[in-house]
Amino acid sequence: MPQDPRVDTYIAGRAEFARPILSWMRARVHAACPDVEESIKWSMPAFLYKGRSLANMAAFKAHASFGFWDRQALATGKEGEAMGQYGRIESLDDLPAAEMFETQVRDAVARIDGGQKPVRAAKAPKPELPVPPELAEALAGDPKATETFTGFPPGCRREYCEWIAEAKRPETKAKRVADAVEWLREGKRRNWKYESC
Fold this sequence. Notes:
This protein is α+β, with helices and mostly antiparallel strands. Strand 2 and strand 3 form a beta hairpin. The two termini are 43 Å apart. A 4-stranded antiparallel β-sheet has the order 1-2-3-4. It has helices at 5-12, 18-32, 98-113, 133-140, 143-151, 154-165, 170-185, and strands at residues 37-41, 44-49, 52-59, 64-68. The radius of gyration is 25 Å and the shape is elongated. The chain is built from 7 helices and 4 strands.
């Protein structure tokens, strides 16, 4: 596949230490998977295979990085040192041997060919926030607003609680409580103005 000129521009615009590292990784990806496509995603070079994300690379002030999209399945043991599977790459010496790198690229391609999707750890739900006393008092006097509030999913209740709790001045807090009760009476979520109709 042809190389994306935007990736050429990205590499050319990086620090001198990073250019050979990025060029080497790019060449190894193409050697291991001739059908790989290049793109720019999240402002960094990305490699796609059959329309799915395969890997990406980036350069920063003092290091470069390379990461497979299916990071749990293709772990190398250097995760957490920096973005990607190889930690902080400061020189070509920080990279694995070309054959090993290409084998990992082929493994990533095989996972896509096999229909395997990246497994992401499930995020634990955020705990329920305590209702600010001012809102609790206002809701106690308004059954319709209380019914709406308690009927909302936890995330919607959290938005109201955070919005009111973050107010610094008592006047601001009182205004937000009044608005919240009015909106809840009308069945509206906290950010109702931004929801599509």
